[in-house]
Protein: Cysteine-rich receptor-like protein kinase 10
Organism: Dendrobium catenatum
Amino acid sequence: MLLSRLQHKNVVNLYGYCAHGEDKLLVYEYVANESLDKLLFSGQGGQVAAAAEVLHWRRRFEVIVGVARGLLYLHEDAHTPIIHRDIKASNILLDERWSPKIADFGMARLFPEELTHVQTRIAGTNGYMAPEYFMSGALSPKVDVFSFGVLVIELVSGQKNSRFSPRHDASTLLEWAWMFYTQKNTMDMLDPALRSTADAEQVAMCVQIGLLCTQANPKLRPDMRRVVVVLSKKPGPLEEPIKPGIPYSKHKRRSHGLGRSSYTTGESSAMSSGASSYATNSAFAANPNNMASTSSSSSATTTTTITTMTITPTNSTTSRS
Ligand SMILES: Nc1ncnc2c1ncn2[C@@H]1O[C@H](COP(=O)(O)OP(=O)(O)OP(=O)(O)O)[C@@H](O)[C@H]1O
Ligand SMILES: [Mg+2]
């Protein structure tokens, strides 16, 4: 119910939901160019050329700005503040104008404004989770800020944080970016697909923002309002980052033996305050005319499965998500 009230051009529209016992179904609008990861991490050869053509620097910068605005809306301007908890390239969708939309609220949490953080059990994705969150379950909007910082460094470098192979004394993508930042040659960490389109000043600013957002100490990370201000106009002097934190990367997910894409949380959700826990947004083929038959089954008594379905507004066809 609360998610369906979210309205922002950088947040995907939720058309409806269905709750049937332990089964939960979310129905989102279909977003034409699908998710950012498919282009950003598309690999070698002709794919690099494709990434250079469609994901040139101006577009990537617009993606960074749009995701920052969407997150600011969720954290501060939505009716009830929300922490997304799973910001990553595959959960950023690109519409027909390449404008980004934050998607996949399967792990989102309501966040009482008066608190600095809430204690939760951990759910998230390898390579994007803030250190204080995976160490102690301390959840605050700064957890999304950390994931956003990882995403910014991925957009600049074209590299997937969780697939980074250690090099030049850097064991993570963030350390690698930090190395270039301290040497003042951030253009050397650029995605080769951006060579002819990048703006060196904007690249340097984005790397600095990415590093500030991924500071190990959440208090040293800016909030999304500050990030949006810095990105939107000529910023004043920006704080100097120190060495970034290390994102959670030991296991893909905390799965408690329920399979690769299951989460066990034991907490109430932004979507359904009655749910005791959630699990995955697993892909499936759905027929919008027959929603009841598309609900996926729950995988364990402590786990509820949330399934995602997308609908194209123009012709009401469905697509796998
Ligand atoms: N509303 C949508 N419109 C268009 N494509 C979508 C939509 N939602 C999801 N997708 C596509 O479906 C893919 C699978 O999405 P899904 O959320 O199930 O998996 P994921 O994001 O790759 O991983 P995770 O399960 O960790 O979220 C996405 O990568 C995206 O390309
Ligand atoms: Mg997803």
